[in-house]
Design brief:
Radius of gyration: 18 Å
Number of domains: 1
CATH class: Alpha Beta
CATH architecture: Roll
Number of strands: 5
Distance between the termini: 38 Å
CATH superfamily: Hotdog Thioesterase
Strand content: 35-45%
Helix content: 10-25%
Strand order of the largest sheet: 1-3-4-5-2
Mean pLDDT: 94
């Protein structure tokens, strides 16, 4: 198995920024609130930042997969504002990487949390997916 300490380190981080578009708003999720950043979109940004923090440094046969996210969205962000999310590696344990999430806009903090990613081989993920998909093939016959 891969020794993650050879590729990533505690403190390593990445940032992801985006101007809030209509497709990022709560309105896309049938909420009564218009023109505000939707929590699922903010979490998606955090996951993207997490991927950028880890994957560019892994050997090509490995990939990171998200296994858990805990996030608190603390303040609203309006359409047209810029959101920045930073993820920082805070722990490396066996084949798991724990990231701290911090999010803010031009007015200040808007959320925080944790995100865990497991490091696995692409081959392993594809094999497991194929095994699970076999269920559909068997069910149809």
């Amino acid at each position: 198995m891969i020794n993650l300490h050879d590729y990533v380190s505690v403190g390593q981080n990445s940032m992801y920024s985006k101007v809030v578009q209509h497709s990022d708003t709560s309105e896309s999720y049938s909420s009564g609130l218009k023109n505000l950043l939707a929590t699922p979109k903010l979490i998606h940004m955090a996951i993207e930042a997490g991927i950028q923090t880890v994957e560019p440094y892994l050997p090509h046969e490995y990939v990171s997969v998200g296994i858990s996210t805990s996030f608190v969205h603390t303040a609203p962000t309006s359409l047209g504002m810029t959101v920045t999310v930073r993820t920082s590696i805070i722990a490396i344990e066996e084949h798991n990487i724990l990231l701290e999430i911090q999010a803010w806009d031009e007015q200040g903090d808007i959320g925080h949390g944790k995100h865990k990613r497991a490091i696995v081989t692409k081959e392993e993920v594809e094999r497991k997916a194929s095994e699970r998909t076999q269920f559909l093939t068997n069910r149809e016959h």
